[in-house]
Amino acid sequence: MHTFDGTFLGDNSKLKDDDCLECKVCHYVYDPKIGDIDQNIMPGTPFSQLPEYWNCPVCGCERDLFLVVPKNYERDKDSGYSAK
Ligand SMILES: [Zn+2]
């Protein structure tokens, strides 16, 4: 099985409530501070609390394909951060 650093593999216990997760297919980022209003996800909803039916709003892929965005993402993106 192919795994990536940061892939949570469906294990919600690895997620912190304020973790942002990025879709590895289309690079949409779920930010719990913003939620996903289009799918009735209120701001402040942790990724781990998203309902089973929730898929990526952009490409429709499953939650398991999301990667945890490192906390230093904001600081590093100017220096060429790329998700591995
Ligand atoms: Zn996507």
Automatic annotation (TrEMBL):
Residues 18-69 form the Rubredoxin-like domain. InterPro entries: Rubredoxin-like_dom, Rubredoxin_dom, Rubredoxin_ET, Rubredoxin_Fe_BS. Its cofactor is Fe(3+). Pfam families: Rubredoxin (PF00301). GO terms for biological process: alkane catabolic process. Belongs to the rubredoxin family. Keywords: Electron transport, Iron, Metal-binding, Transport. GO terms for molecular function: electron transfer activity; iron ion binding. Gene3D superfamilies: 2.20.28.10. It comes from the Bacteria. This is Rubredoxin.
